[in-house]
Amino acid sequence: MLEDQRFIISRDIPIEVGGLFILVALVGIGFAIWGYRTGGPRGEQILRATAGVLSGLGLFVAGYIAYKTQIVNEPFQCAGGGGGCALVEKSKYANFLGVHMSIWGLIGYATILGATIWKGDNARLAAFGLALFGFTVSLVLRYLELWEIHAACQWCWASAVLMTVLLVVNSCRLIGYYGTGDPEQQTSFADEAEPDPAS
């Protein structure tokens, strides 16, 4: 039943590109585990830094597609000469509510980056919720690519990988640190409250 979809992926995503996707995912998940296991303010800093880098990469991917399609009005290229990107771009699913999907991607990654920079429990919950929403949208779009469009866009799959790892990282941040407030702020308050032995 899935033979057609496997063929589409192997046709439109070269093994080198797929290997790069796997490498990025493994590195991101490795940093997520490291940050979760480290604990304390340093552990969350690792998770926030990882989420920040992933969000930056997502902004680059979405920004490249937006630049090509919305500014210079040129087709964006897939590595290795694959035609999947062009087929996906020509489909009716390239826009939602009259707005190109790359613009939605820019908005999504920018808001996740904002929740990453922001501190405290509300930021942890917001970053997780946004990443979960982005991951769900990515799943729907990959389904549409493989079952409706019958093509795979490498840039779209890159975004899906980044959003998946962002969900892992922000899940670790939420599970490991929710309810702890802002550890950095607590440390500074403790330092202020501690009496000066010289006085």
In summary, what is this structure?
With 199 residues, the chain is mostly helical. The protein has helices at residues 3-12, 15-38, 40-71, 84-90, 101-117, 121-149, 154-177, 183-193, and strands spanning 95-96, 99-100.
Describe the 3D structure.
The protein contains 8 helices and 2 strands, in the order ααααββαααα. With 199 residues, it is mainly alpha-helical. It has one domain: VKOR domain (de novo design (two linked rop proteins), Up-down Bundle). Strands 1-2 form a two-stranded antiparallel ribbon. The chain is globular and about 50 Å long.
CATH first level: Mainly Alpha
Q: What sort of overall outline do the alpha carbons produce when their principal axes are compared?
A: globular
Mean pLDDT: 88
Beta-strand portion reads under 5%
SSE string, helix = H, strand = E? HHHHEEHHHH
Poorly predicted parts: 186-193
Give the total of domains. 1
Topology, number of strands: 2
Question: How would you summarize the topology of this molecule?
Answer:
Elements: H1 3-12, H2 15-38, H3 40-71, H4 84-90, E1 95-96, E2 99-100, H5 101-117, H6 121-149, H7 154-177, H8 183-193
Antiparallel strand pairs: 1-2
Task: Sum up the structure in keywords.
199 residues; mainly alpha; de novo design (two linked rop proteins); 8 helices
